Amino acid sequence: MSCGASRARAFFHVTLPLIVPGLLSGALFAFIISFDEPVVSFFVSSVRQRTLPRRMFEDIEQNLTPVIPAIATLLTLLSIAVLIAVALLRVLERRRRAE
């Protein structure tokens, strides 16, 4: 395939490292969007399955507890922590390349 490397070696050493950020971003976006789809959860899941979006939707309708705002706060803090970690990793990578 390329410079004498086998297809598997070329995939794992060239292609896979290039597509991993896109795969992780897509998975993260799918996970985040799934929290906004309780209606889909109602249709897709069975009566016994209790997904987090479904549970949150039911809790908002039936009783107001501090659980939902707590989960929202944790998800927001998690998003901010990931953004800070990515920014720090980029800064460290730039410093390492500059040396």
Task: Please name the defining characteristics of this protein.
99 residues, mainly alpha, 4 helices, 0% strand, flat
Can you walk me through this structure?
The chain has 99 residues and is an all-alpha fold. It has a domain of 34 residues. It contains four helices and no strands. The longest helix has 32 residues.
Main β-sheet description? none
Low-confidence segments? none
The assigned structural class equals mainly alpha
Beta-strand share of residues: under 5%
Give a quick rundown of the structure:
By secondary structure, the chain is an all-alpha fold.
Could you give the topology of this structure?
Blueprint: H1 7-34, H2 38-44, H3 52-62, H4 67-98
Helix pairs in contact: 2-3
